[in-house]
């Protein structure tokens, strides 16, 4: 699986503990390896938490959640500026607790409101210390909602003037309204198309048939009103469906494929 660093195959959900007594399964979606290493260290030394691994891209994040079933996902806001990934993650697993670590560039009323509407349960500054992050993980899991006190002033409802449609105006398509028009699987396929992969390569990564990938590509072109794959990727970046990695210049080589994932020795 491209961009995934696994640790264990699964953590149990009931009451936050698995039958084997392991703690809450925590994973991260973040492009910075050293940040993920620090989070891994924090989780390992915190009683009641279990580190599962991390993903460095959107499609890898979706596949990580499908395969490793974390209880809590810690997400970098720079990878989700339009909260599309948060919405897909929460829609795919209502029990999953999503914690967004917000960067200064996203620290606005509008972003917090959009994140909460997309299903994010907790929002903390990316610069928070380990003790506060561990507390946020526990609080978010137990209460299903936690906003760092330093962000409290941003939780007030943003004032917006309603924009009323003019008589005779046709309804705007979802993409024009800033919504996610693609399904979870279509989103993964489009991410891999943007990376330059052909249908056969996408099928191998997502464990799909080439024909199924071809069907998804056709659906993506139709939903985005795109002429071809290149046009679809261009539209997706311009509309915010796809985002560039905020730390591309510092990204490491891709990590092992999904076929290499195995449980860590206990």
TrEMBL record:
Residues 1-20, 245-266 are annotated as: Disordered. This is Helix-turn-helix transcriptional regulator. The keyword DNA-binding applies. The keyword Phosphoprotein applies. Gene3D superfamilies: 3.40.50.2300. GO terms for biological process: phosphorelay signal transduction system; regulation of DNA-templated transcription. The modification 4-aspartylphosphate is found at residue 76. Residues 175-240 form the HTH luxR-type domain. Residues 25-141 form the Response regulatory domain. GO terms for molecular function: DNA binding. Keywords: DNA-binding, Phosphoprotein.
């Amino acid at each position: 699986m491209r961009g995934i660093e696994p640790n264990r195959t699964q953590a149990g959900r009931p009451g936050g503990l698995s039958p084997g007594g392991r703690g809450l399964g925590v994973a991260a979606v973040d492009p910075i390896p050293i940040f993920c290493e620090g989070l891994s260290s924090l989780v390992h030394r915190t009683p009641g938490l279990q580190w599962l691994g991390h993903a460095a891209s959107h499609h890898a994040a979706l596949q990580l959640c499908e395969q490793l079933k974390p209880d809590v996902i810690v997400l970098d806001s720079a990878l989700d500026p339009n909260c599309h990934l948060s919405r897909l993650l929460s829609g795919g697993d209502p029990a999953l607790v999503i914690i967004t670590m917000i960067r200064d560039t996203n620290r606005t009323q509008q972003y917090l409101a959009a994140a909460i509407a997309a299903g994010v349960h907790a929002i903390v500054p990316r610069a928070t210390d380990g003790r506060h992050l561990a507390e946020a993980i526990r609080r978010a899991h137990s209460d299903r909602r936690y906003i760092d006190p330093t962000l409290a002033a941003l939780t007030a409802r943003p004032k917006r003037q309603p924009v009323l449609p003019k008589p005779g105006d046709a309804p705007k398509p979802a993409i024009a309204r800033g919504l996610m028009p693609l399904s979870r699987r279509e989103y993964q396929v489009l991410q891999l198309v943007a990376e330059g992969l052909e249908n056969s390569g996408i099928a191998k990564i997502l464990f799909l048939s080439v024909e199924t990938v071809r069907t998804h590509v056709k659906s993506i072109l139709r939903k985005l009103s795109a002429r071809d794959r290149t046009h679809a990727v261009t539209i997706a970046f311009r509309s915010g469906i796809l985002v560039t990695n905020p730390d591309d210049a510092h990204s490491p080589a891709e990590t092992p494929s999904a076929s290499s994932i195995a449980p860590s020795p206990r």
